[in-house]
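Protocol step 4 of 5: obtain the predicted structure for the target chain.
Materials: sequence only (see below). No template structures provided, no constraints applied. The aim of this step is simply to have a reference model before the mutagenesis design in step 5. Sequence pasted as it appears in the construct record:
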Amino acid sequence: MGIYEPNHQISMWGQSFISDSSPNTGISTIVEADAKLDNRSEGTSDGTLGTPTKFEQEAYKPNDKVSRRLAQNREAARKSRVRKKAYIQQLESSRMKLSQLEQELERARQQLQGVYIGGHLGDSSHLALPGSVNSGVAAFEMEYGHWVEEQNRLTCELRTALQAHVSDFELRILVDSSMSHYDNLFRMKTIAAKSDVFYLMSGMWKTPAERFFLWIGGFRPSELLKVLSPQLDPLTEQQSFDVCNLQQSSQQAEDALSQGMEKLQHTLAETLVSKSLINLGAADYMGQLSTAVEKLEALVSFVNQADHLRQQTLQQMYRILTIRQAARGLLALDDYCQRLRALSSLWAARPREPA
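Step 4 output (C-alpha coordinates):
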Protein backbone atom coordinates (compact mmCIF):
# COMPACT_ATOMS: atom_id res chain seq x y z
CA MET A 1 0.00 0.00 0.00
CA GLY A 2 1.37 3.35 -0.91
CA ILE A 3 1.43 6.50 1.31
CA TYR A 4 -1.01 9.16 0.24
CA GLU A 5 0.03 12.74 1.00
CA PRO A 6 -2.73 15.34 1.33
CA ASN A 7 -2.83 18.04 -1.30
CA HIS A 8 -1.51 21.34 -0.04
CA GLN A 9 -2.73 24.52 -1.59
CA ILE A 10 -0.31 27.33 -0.93
CA SER A 11 -1.90 30.75 -0.96
CA MET A 12 0.51 33.68 -0.78
CA TRP A 13 -1.06 37.03 -0.44
CA GLY A 14 0.91 40.21 -0.98
CA GLN A 15 -0.45 43.72 -0.63
CA SER A 16 0.69 45.44 -3.80
CA PHE A 17 -0.65 48.82 -2.83
CA ILE A 18 -2.75 50.60 -0.21
CA SER A 19 -5.33 53.03 -1.43
CA ASP A 20 -7.12 55.63 0.65
CA SER A 21 -10.82 55.45 -0.11
CA SER A 22 -11.59 58.60 1.84
CA PRO A 23 -13.62 61.22 -0.04
CA ASN A 24 -11.03 63.86 1.01
CA THR A 25 -8.31 62.40 -1.18
CA GLY A 26 -6.50 65.17 -2.96
CA ILE A 27 -5.74 65.55 -6.65
CA SER A 28 -2.02 65.55 -5.92
CA THR A 29 -2.27 62.10 -4.40
CA ILE A 30 -3.83 60.76 -7.59
CA VAL A 31 -1.17 62.48 -9.71
CA GLU A 32 1.60 60.94 -7.63
CA ALA A 33 0.04 57.51 -8.05
CA ASP A 34 -0.17 58.01 -11.80
CA ALA A 35 3.45 59.07 -11.90
CA LYS A 36 4.55 55.97 -10.07
CA LEU A 37 2.61 53.80 -12.50
CA ASP A 38 4.23 55.65 -15.42
CA ASN A 39 7.67 55.08 -13.98
CA ARG A 40 6.96 51.35 -13.61
CA SER A 41 5.69 51.21 -17.18
CA GLU A 42 8.91 52.81 -18.39
CA GLY A 43 10.91 50.20 -16.52
CA THR A 44 9.08 47.45 -18.40
CA SER A 45 8.60 49.07 -21.76
CA ASP A 46 11.32 46.92 -23.33
CA GLY A 47 9.24 43.78 -22.69
CA THR A 48 11.12 42.66 -19.56
CA LEU A 49 9.95 42.78 -15.97
CA GLY A 50 11.39 45.44 -13.79
CA THR A 51 13.46 44.70 -10.72
CA PRO A 52 11.07 43.35 -8.04
CA THR A 53 10.96 45.08 -4.71
CA LYS A 54 12.26 43.41 -1.56
CA PHE A 55 8.67 42.91 -0.40
CA GLU A 56 7.77 41.09 -3.65
CA GLN A 57 10.86 38.88 -3.37
CA GLU A 58 9.88 37.82 0.14
CA ALA A 59 6.24 37.27 -0.90
CA TYR A 60 7.16 34.87 -3.68
CA LYS A 61 10.07 33.16 -1.93
CA PRO A 62 9.08 29.46 -1.55
CA ASN A 63 8.80 28.09 1.95
CA ASP A 64 11.58 25.53 2.63
CA LYS A 65 9.22 23.10 4.36
CA VAL A 66 6.75 23.28 1.49
CA SER A 67 9.52 22.77 -1.06
CA ARG A 68 10.75 19.69 0.75
CA ARG A 69 7.24 18.30 0.96
CA LEU A 70 6.64 18.91 -2.75
CA ALA A 71 9.93 17.22 -3.58
CA GLN A 72 8.99 14.26 -1.40
CA ASN A 73 5.60 14.03 -3.13
CA ARG A 74 7.25 14.05 -6.55
CA GLU A 75 9.71 11.36 -5.50
CA ALA A 76 6.93 9.23 -3.97
CA ALA A 77 4.88 9.59 -7.15
CA ARG A 78 7.89 8.59 -9.26
CA LYS A 79 8.53 5.48 -7.13
CA SER A 80 4.83 4.61 -7.29
CA ARG A 81 4.91 4.77 -11.08
CA VAL A 82 8.00 2.55 -11.18
CA ARG A 83 6.40 -0.03 -8.84
CA LYS A 84 3.17 0.03 -10.85
CA LYS A 85 5.06 -0.51 -14.11
CA ALA A 86 7.01 -3.43 -12.60
CA TYR A 87 3.82 -4.95 -11.19
CA ILE A 88 2.07 -4.71 -14.57
CA GLN A 89 5.04 -6.39 -16.22
CA GLN A 90 4.91 -9.19 -13.64
CA LEU A 91 1.19 -9.67 -14.26
CA GLU A 92 1.73 -9.83 -18.01
CA SER A 93 4.53 -12.36 -17.58
CA SER A 94 2.36 -14.44 -15.23
CA ARG A 95 -0.53 -14.28 -17.69
CA MET A 96 1.66 -15.61 -20.50
CA LYS A 97 3.00 -18.45 -18.31
CA LEU A 98 -0.52 -19.33 -17.23
CA SER A 99 -1.66 -19.40 -20.85
CA GLN A 100 1.16 -21.78 -21.72
CA LEU A 101 0.28 -24.06 -18.80
CA GLU A 102 -3.36 -24.14 -19.87
CA GLN A 103 -2.33 -25.10 -23.42
CA GLU A 104 -0.16 -27.93 -22.09
CA LEU A 105 -3.02 -29.15 -19.91
CA GLU A 106 -5.41 -29.11 -22.84
CA ARG A 107 -2.97 -31.13 -24.97
CA ALA A 108 -2.68 -33.70 -22.16
CA ARG A 109 -6.45 -33.97 -21.97
CA GLN A 110 -6.75 -34.51 -25.70
CA GLN A 111 -4.15 -37.26 -25.59
CA LEU A 112 -6.21 -39.14 -23.01
CA GLN A 113 -9.48 -39.10 -24.92
CA GLY A 114 -10.81 -42.65 -25.16
CA VAL A 115 -9.09 -43.97 -22.05
CA TYR A 116 -11.20 -46.80 -20.56
CA ILE A 117 -12.14 -46.36 -16.89
CA GLY A 118 -14.01 -49.16 -15.07
CA GLY A 119 -15.66 -50.36 -18.27
CA HIS A 120 -16.77 -46.86 -19.31
CA LEU A 121 -15.25 -44.10 -21.36
CA GLY A 122 -14.32 -41.44 -18.86
CA ASP A 123 -13.89 -37.72 -19.14
CA SER A 124 -10.13 -37.21 -19.08
CA SER A 125 -10.54 -33.80 -17.46
CA HIS A 126 -11.27 -35.58 -14.15
CA LEU A 127 -8.07 -37.66 -14.20
CA ALA A 128 -5.16 -36.85 -11.92
CA LEU A 129 -2.29 -37.07 -14.35
CA PRO A 130 1.36 -37.30 -13.36
CA GLY A 131 2.98 -34.05 -14.42
CA SER A 132 -0.32 -32.37 -15.28
CA VAL A 133 -0.88 -28.83 -14.06
CA ASN A 134 -3.98 -27.33 -12.47
CA SER A 135 -4.17 -23.82 -13.87
CA GLY A 136 -5.69 -22.49 -10.63
CA VAL A 137 -2.86 -24.00 -8.59
CA ALA A 138 -0.24 -22.64 -10.98
CA ALA A 139 -1.75 -19.17 -10.73
CA PHE A 140 -1.81 -19.36 -6.94
CA GLU A 141 1.83 -20.44 -6.74
CA MET A 142 2.93 -17.50 -8.88
CA GLU A 143 0.78 -15.06 -6.91
CA TYR A 144 2.06 -16.46 -3.63
CA GLY A 145 5.66 -16.03 -4.80
CA HIS A 146 4.94 -12.36 -5.52
CA TRP A 147 3.16 -12.10 -2.16
CA VAL A 148 6.23 -13.32 -0.28
CA GLU A 149 8.46 -10.83 -2.12
CA GLU A 150 6.11 -7.96 -1.29
CA GLN A 151 5.88 -9.18 2.31
CA ASN A 152 9.66 -8.98 2.64
CA ARG A 153 9.61 -5.41 1.30
CA LEU A 154 6.84 -4.30 3.66
CA THR A 155 8.63 -5.89 6.62
CA CYS A 156 11.86 -4.03 5.80
CA GLU A 157 9.96 -0.73 5.61
CA LEU A 158 8.22 -1.43 8.91
CA ARG A 159 11.47 -2.36 10.68
CA THR A 160 13.22 0.76 9.34
CA ALA A 161 10.31 2.97 10.45
CA LEU A 162 10.42 1.56 14.00
CA GLN A 163 14.17 2.06 14.23
CA ALA A 164 13.83 5.64 12.94
CA HIS A 165 11.09 6.40 15.53
CA VAL A 166 8.72 7.85 12.95
CA SER A 167 5.43 9.40 14.01
CA ASP A 168 2.42 7.26 14.91
CA PHE A 169 0.62 8.58 11.82
CA GLU A 170 3.36 7.38 9.46
CA LEU A 171 3.68 4.08 11.30
CA ARG A 172 -0.07 3.46 11.09
CA ILE A 173 0.06 3.76 7.30
CA LEU A 174 2.73 1.03 7.13
CA VAL A 175 0.87 -1.22 9.58
CA ASP A 176 -2.37 -0.81 7.60
CA SER A 177 -0.47 -1.79 4.44
CA SER A 178 0.81 -4.96 6.10
CA MET A 179 -2.67 -5.86 7.36
CA SER A 180 -4.13 -5.35 3.88
CA HIS A 181 -1.36 -7.56 2.51
CA TYR A 182 -2.52 -10.43 4.73
CA ASP A 183 -6.10 -9.81 3.56
CA ASN A 184 -4.83 -10.33 0.00
CA LEU A 185 -3.35 -13.69 1.01
CA PHE A 186 -6.68 -14.87 2.41
CA ARG A 187 -8.42 -13.75 -0.79
CA MET A 188 -5.91 -15.70 -2.90
CA LYS A 189 -6.43 -18.81 -0.77
CA THR A 190 -10.20 -18.60 -1.17
CA ILE A 191 -9.79 -18.76 -4.95
CA ALA A 192 -7.21 -21.56 -4.73
CA ALA A 193 -9.49 -23.64 -2.46
CA LYS A 194 -12.16 -23.66 -5.15
CA SER A 195 -9.60 -24.84 -7.67
CA ASP A 196 -7.95 -27.60 -5.57
CA VAL A 197 -8.75 -27.74 -1.87
CA PHE A 198 -6.50 -30.80 -1.30
CA TYR A 199 -3.50 -28.91 -2.65
CA LEU A 200 -4.19 -25.99 -0.35
CA MET A 201 -4.70 -28.17 2.72
CA SER A 202 -1.58 -30.20 2.00
CA GLY A 203 0.55 -27.07 2.36
CA MET A 204 2.66 -27.90 -0.69
CA TRP A 205 2.94 -24.17 -1.31
CA LYS A 206 4.85 -23.82 1.98
CA THR A 207 8.20 -25.12 3.23
CA PRO A 208 8.38 -28.49 5.08
CA ALA A 209 8.79 -26.93 8.54
CA GLU A 210 5.78 -24.68 7.92
CA ARG A 211 3.74 -27.70 6.83
CA PHE A 212 4.61 -29.43 10.10
CA PHE A 213 2.61 -26.76 12.01
CA LEU A 214 -0.18 -26.56 9.44
CA TRP A 215 -3.81 -26.64 10.57
CA ILE A 216 -6.55 -26.71 7.89
CA GLY A 217 -4.37 -24.92 5.36
CA GLY A 218 -2.70 -22.39 7.65
CA PHE A 219 -1.48 -21.48 11.14
CA ARG A 220 -3.42 -22.04 14.35
CA PRO A 221 -4.50 -18.61 15.66
CA SER A 222 -4.26 -19.68 19.31
CA GLU A 223 -0.71 -20.99 18.85
CA LEU A 224 0.25 -17.82 17.03
CA LEU A 225 -0.94 -15.72 19.98
CA LYS A 226 1.27 -17.78 22.28
CA VAL A 227 4.25 -16.99 20.03
CA LEU A 228 3.52 -13.27 19.73
CA SER A 229 2.42 -12.37 23.26
CA PRO A 230 5.94 -12.39 24.81
CA GLN A 231 7.11 -10.04 22.05
CA LEU A 232 4.46 -7.42 22.89
CA ASP A 233 5.41 -6.63 26.51
CA PRO A 234 4.73 -4.45 28.30
CA LEU A 235 0.97 -4.96 28.01
CA THR A 236 -1.48 -3.11 30.20
CA GLU A 237 -3.76 -5.09 32.48
CA GLN A 238 -6.69 -4.52 30.14
CA GLN A 239 -4.65 -5.57 27.11
CA SER A 240 -3.52 -8.77 28.83
CA PHE A 241 -7.14 -9.54 29.70
CA ASP A 242 -8.29 -8.94 26.11
CA VAL A 243 -5.48 -11.04 24.63
CA CYS A 244 -6.29 -13.89 27.03
CA ASN A 245 -9.98 -13.78 26.05
CA LEU A 246 -9.05 -13.71 22.37
CA GLN A 247 -6.82 -16.74 22.80
CA GLN A 248 -9.59 -18.69 24.55
CA SER A 249 -12.23 -17.81 21.95
CA SER A 250 -9.81 -18.72 19.14
CA GLN A 251 -9.12 -22.08 20.80
CA GLN A 252 -12.85 -22.80 21.09
CA ALA A 253 -13.41 -21.97 17.41
CA GLU A 254 -10.46 -24.16 16.43
CA ASP A 255 -11.85 -27.07 18.45
CA ALA A 256 -15.24 -26.71 16.76
CA LEU A 257 -13.67 -26.74 13.29
CA SER A 258 -11.46 -29.70 14.17
CA GLN A 259 -14.49 -31.66 15.40
CA GLY A 260 -16.31 -30.78 12.18
CA MET A 261 -13.37 -32.12 10.15
CA GLU A 262 -13.37 -35.37 12.15
CA LYS A 263 -17.09 -35.78 11.59
CA LEU A 264 -16.63 -35.21 7.86
CA GLN A 265 -13.93 -37.89 7.72
CA HIS A 266 -16.18 -40.32 9.59
CA THR A 267 -19.16 -39.59 7.31
CA LEU A 268 -17.01 -39.95 4.21
CA ALA A 269 -15.64 -43.30 5.37
CA GLU A 270 -19.17 -44.56 6.04
CA THR A 271 -20.26 -43.48 2.57
CA LEU A 272 -17.42 -45.38 0.89
CA VAL A 273 -18.02 -48.64 2.80
CA SER A 274 -21.82 -48.49 3.02
CA LYS A 275 -22.16 -51.14 0.29
CA SER A 276 -19.98 -54.06 -0.65
CA LEU A 277 -17.80 -53.18 -3.62
CA ILE A 278 -18.08 -56.78 -4.88
CA ASN A 279 -21.83 -56.59 -5.41
CA LEU A 280 -21.89 -53.05 -6.84
CA GLY A 281 -22.58 -52.53 -10.49
CA ALA A 282 -20.80 -49.83 -12.48
CA ALA A 283 -23.70 -47.37 -12.11
CA ASP A 284 -23.99 -47.93 -8.35
CA TYR A 285 -20.23 -47.63 -7.98
CA MET A 286 -20.11 -44.26 -9.77
CA GLY A 287 -23.16 -43.10 -7.78
CA GLN A 288 -21.44 -43.93 -4.51
CA LEU A 289 -18.33 -42.01 -5.56
CA SER A 290 -20.47 -39.05 -6.65
CA THR A 291 -22.03 -38.94 -3.18
CA ALA A 292 -18.55 -38.98 -1.63
CA VAL A 293 -17.45 -36.13 -3.89
CA GLU A 294 -20.44 -34.04 -2.80
CA LYS A 295 -19.47 -34.54 0.84
CA LEU A 296 -15.85 -33.61 0.07
CA GLU A 297 -17.00 -30.22 -1.20
CA ALA A 298 -17.53 -29.30 2.45
CA LEU A 299 -13.72 -29.13 2.74
CA VAL A 300 -13.74 -25.82 0.89
CA SER A 301 -16.06 -24.39 3.54
CA PHE A 302 -13.79 -25.64 6.33
CA VAL A 303 -10.71 -24.00 4.78
CA ASN A 304 -12.56 -20.73 4.28
CA GLN A 305 -13.82 -20.78 7.88
CA ALA A 306 -10.31 -21.47 9.18
CA ASP A 307 -8.89 -18.58 7.14
CA HIS A 308 -11.69 -16.33 8.37
CA LEU A 309 -10.75 -17.22 11.95
CA ARG A 310 -7.10 -16.41 11.23
CA GLN A 311 -8.06 -13.09 9.64
CA GLN A 312 -10.37 -12.13 12.52
CA THR A 313 -7.68 -12.97 15.08
CA LEU A 314 -5.19 -10.67 13.38
CA GLN A 315 -7.75 -7.86 13.18
CA GLN A 316 -8.74 -8.27 16.85
CA MET A 317 -5.10 -8.09 17.91
CA TYR A 318 -4.73 -4.92 15.84
CA ARG A 319 -7.63 -3.35 17.77
CA ILE A 320 -6.25 -4.40 21.17
CA LEU A 321 -2.67 -3.18 20.69
CA THR A 322 -1.20 0.28 20.28
CA ILE A 323 0.12 1.10 16.83
CA ARG A 324 3.73 0.47 17.90
CA GLN A 325 2.83 -2.80 19.57
CA ALA A 326 0.98 -3.85 16.41
CA ALA A 327 4.07 -3.03 14.33
CA ARG A 328 6.27 -5.12 16.64
CA GLY A 329 3.73 -7.95 16.47
CA LEU A 330 3.77 -7.98 12.66
CA LEU A 331 7.57 -8.05 12.69
CA ALA A 332 7.51 -10.95 15.17
CA LEU A 333 5.05 -12.84 12.96
CA ASP A 334 7.22 -12.40 9.89
CA ASP A 335 10.35 -13.32 11.87
CA TYR A 336 8.64 -16.54 13.02
CA CYS A 337 7.82 -17.49 9.43
CA GLN A 338 11.36 -16.65 8.30
CA ARG A 339 12.80 -18.93 10.96
CA LEU A 340 10.57 -21.79 9.87
CA ARG A 341 11.78 -21.34 6.28
CA ALA A 342 15.39 -21.24 7.46
CA LEU A 343 14.77 -24.41 9.46
CA SER A 344 13.47 -26.11 6.32
CA SER A 345 16.58 -25.09 4.40
CA LEU A 346 18.87 -26.42 7.14
CA TRP A 347 16.89 -29.65 7.27
CA ALA A 348 17.22 -30.14 3.51
CA ALA A 349 20.97 -29.39 3.61
CA ARG A 350 21.75 -31.59 6.63
CA PRO A 351 24.44 -34.26 6.19
CA ARG A 352 22.97 -37.70 5.61
CA GLU A 353 24.43 -41.05 6.45
CA PRO A 354 25.09 -43.26 3.41
CA ALA A 355 22.42 -45.87 2.79
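Step 4 remarks: Residues 64-111 form the longest helix (48 residues). The chain is about 70% helix and 0% strand.
Proceed to step 5.
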